[in-house]
Structure formats: C-alpha cells, structure tokens
Design goal:
CATH class of the largest domain: Mainly Beta
Low-confidence stretches: none
Helix content: 10-25%
Number of domains: 2
CATH topology of the largest domain: OB fold (Dihydrolipoamide Acetyltransferase, E2P)
Number of strands: 5
Mean pLDDT: 84
CATH architecture of the largest domain: Beta Barrel
Strand order of the largest sheet: 1-2-3-5-4
Order of helices and strands: HHEEEEE
CATH superfamily of the largest domain: Nucleic acid-binding proteins
Number of helices: 2
Shape: elongated
Strand content: 15-25%
Radius of gyration: 34 Å
C-alpha cells in the first residue's frame, strides 16, 4: 500500500502593512513637541524678566529708555524730596547712588512709602525729563512685624 501523497500548496503570504507611524514613533514625537513647547515657554518667560527695572543711571546716562516708552524705574527715594502739590500728584526724586531722576507719580501711594525707601515705578519718561509714573511699588525687606496692640 502506498502512502497517499499530499501536496501542499504554498499559502500566499501577503505582508501586512501598517498604516501610519508606529505607536512608539507617535510617543517620541509627542514627547519632543511637549518638551519643545515647555522650552519655548520658559525662554519667553525668562526674557521678559531679565531686566526687571532700569536705574536712573540707565535712563539718564545710558539712554536705555526713550521719551514715552513704558518702562520700570527702580531706586531709593531721596530724603527731603517728597512733595504733594495741589494737583494731587506725588513728586519726589529717585536715586541709584550715582544719578538721580525726578518723578511725578499719579497712582496710589502705598502706606509703606517714605524717604530712603526702595521703590519700583511703572511709567514713561516725559519730555520734561521727569519720570511720569502711574504705578508705585514699595520694596520692603519681607519681615513681618506684629501690629502694636497697645494702640
């Protein structure tokens, strides 16, 4: 008896092609996009805060602010220079120890404002060579003192 011969037809092998990138490639692309976005946000945020304020020397000597350009000016209030004219503004002089600049402030005045106090002003340089501020921020040492209860 002879063994039956079986012939096997080769199966047609069709390669399965994936459509689109693999899941790993997608993950890598997403991670790169997120890291690039965070890097861009960090760089944009830091470049805006590198120069927090200009000093009177920067404005007067180095001409880093043009007339009408909004900037921040920082320095110490000169003793004896604080005046309140009848127009309701506050006038004083700010110094950085080398140069001084007269200031006209029309904004609110914080309670901590006084002579020899560090201030940061937001405003613009006027054609009268005075700094016209609409925002006055007082710099302080950050230490808290409890209110006097004997009052």
């Amino acid at each position: 008896m002879s063994a039956p011969t079986t012939t096997y037809a080769p199966e047609s092998v069709t390669p399965t092609r994936r459509r689109g990138p693999s899941p790993r490639t997608r993950l890598v692309v997403c991670v790169v996009v997120v890291v690039a976005a965070l890097g861009w946000i960090a760089v944009r945020g830091l470049t805006g805060s590198f120069v927090y304020y200009l000093t009177p020397t920067d404005v007067v000597v180095q001409h880093q602010a043009d007339v009408g350009q909004r900037v921040r000016l920082g320095g110490l209030v000169v003793t004896g220079s604080v005046h309140r004219p009848a127009d309701g503004s506050l006038r004083f002089v700010v110094t950085d120890g080398h140069r001084s600049m007269p200031v006209v402030s029309t904004g609110d005045v914080p309670e901590l404002f006084r002579a020899r106090q560090g201030v940061v002003l937001e405003g613009a340089l006027g054609t009268d060579h005075r700094f016209h501020a609409d925002t006055l921020l007082v710099k302080h040492d950050g230490s808290y003192r409890a209110p006097d209860l004997d009052r």
